[in-house]
Specification:
about 240 residues, alpha/beta, Restriction Endonuclease, two-stranded antiparallel sheet, globular
Length: about 240
């Protein structure tokens, strides 16, 4: 069980990953292990963000009590990395006094990726929550235009943009699912974090750690160590 960090820090990490979505998508398409780590990091941050906004604890691999957010992924302690939820399970399960929900998370915007996510979301069975009232797909705002073309697939699902989640977290205010989903319907733009380029990968990782961006720093370090290639977060996406 974890106590969520501040909304500001979670928002900064999500915004950084969103701003680098292009290069991350390329890396994920080339290396399966990198795809697992990046997806795991995004799932964890979304889980932590939802727990923060809803005022609950975050559970990982535990049997939760009432009123919780459960991430079905895992933290790899050997590599200090975040691994995505296994296939067949929802990425996130939510139980509050007012809501039971299953949540699927993706950085992808490719039509086939989104269709696959939608189909998984409709077929998932939760590990712990009762029959969910909501099935939520969390994706970049850009993905929504694609999803409109698949109305029959989307009809019984709820769409939530990563960008609106970032904004809600940055405001450090408590918010209901209804309020968050309502803001998700507005087109919003997350500015890329402005910072001078890092001289090397080690400096880039150290910089993120100093800002409290632990998830991003550990994910980049783990990918780099396993693949012997550099990922420079100062490059454009």
């Amino acid at each position: 069980m974890l106590e969520p960090r501040t909304g500001k820090v979670i928002a900064e990490e999500l915004a950084l990953l969103l701003s680098k979505r292009g290069i991350l998508a390329w890396i994920m398409s080339k290396y399966e292990d990198a795809a697992d780590l990046v997806a795991g990091a995004v799932e964890f941050l979304v889980s932590e963000g939802l727990a923060k906004l809803l005022g609950t604890k975050l559970y990982i691999g535990e049997t939760p009590s009432k009123n919780y957010v459960l991430w079905n992924g895992q933290i790899d302690l050997d590599r200090l990395a975040f691994r995505r939820a296994p296939k067949g399970l929802p990425d996130v399960e939510v139980l509050t006094e007012d809501y039971t929900a299953l949540v699927e998370v993706t950085l992808g915007t490719h039509p086939q990726t989104l269709i696959n996510e939608l189909r998984e979301l409709t077929s998932h069975r939760p590990r712990h929550v009762p029959e969910p009232k909501l099935r939520i797909l969390v994706a970049p705002q850009k993905a929504f235009k694609t999803l409109i073309s698949y109305a029959s697939e989307v009809r019984e699902l709820t769409l939530l943009s990563l960008e609106s989640l970032v904004i809600a977290l940055a405001e450090e205010g408590r918010i209901t699912f209804d309020e968050l989903i309502r803001t998700s319907k507005i087109n919003v733009k997350i500015l890329k974090p402005e910072q001078p380029p890092a001289k090397n990968l080690l400096e880039a990782i150290g910089r993120e750690l100093l800002k409290g961006h632990v998830v991003v720093a550990l994910t980049v370090a783990s990918i780099a160590s396993s693949r012997k290639h550099s990922i420079y977060f100062n490059k454009t996406s």
